[in-house]
Specification:
The chain has three helices and four strands. It has 95 residues and is of the alpha+beta class. A four-stranded mixed beta sheet has the order 2-1-3-4. A hairpin with a 2-residue loop joins strand 3 and strand 4. Helix 1 packs across helix 3. The chain is globular.
């Protein structure tokens, strides 16, 4: 009997509806889904308020706009990769 594969993690992008950050969140979600299409269970967009823009992998917050500023997709891909597909190359994004 083969060992069970680890459960795929969910990614949640919470964005501020008051700030109209849905397009930015949707663009980041598309980037993550394209890069990690077989490595994650889902990417969810979560409406929020008060200037929020966070990225969570499972229960862990890996990016918070208030602390780190708005993320470049490459930076978020690196921190997500480290949690969902460690050791995997991101190709040209690594350079």
């Amino acid at each position: 009997m083969e060992p069970a594969a680890p459960a795929k993690k969910s990614i949640r992008i919470e964005y501020c509806t008051q700030c109209r950050w849905l397009p930015r969140a949707a663009w980041l979600a598309q980037e993550l889904l394209t890069t990690f299409e077989t490595d994650v269970a889902e990417v969810a967009l979560v409406p929020g308020k008060g200037g929020v823009f966070t990225v969570r992998v499972g229960e862990e917050t890996v990016w918070d706009r208030r602390e780190q500023g708005f993320p470049e997709p490459t930076a978020v891909k690196r921190v997500v990769r480290d949690r969902v597909a460690p050791g995997r190359s991101l190709g040209h994004s690594e350079r």
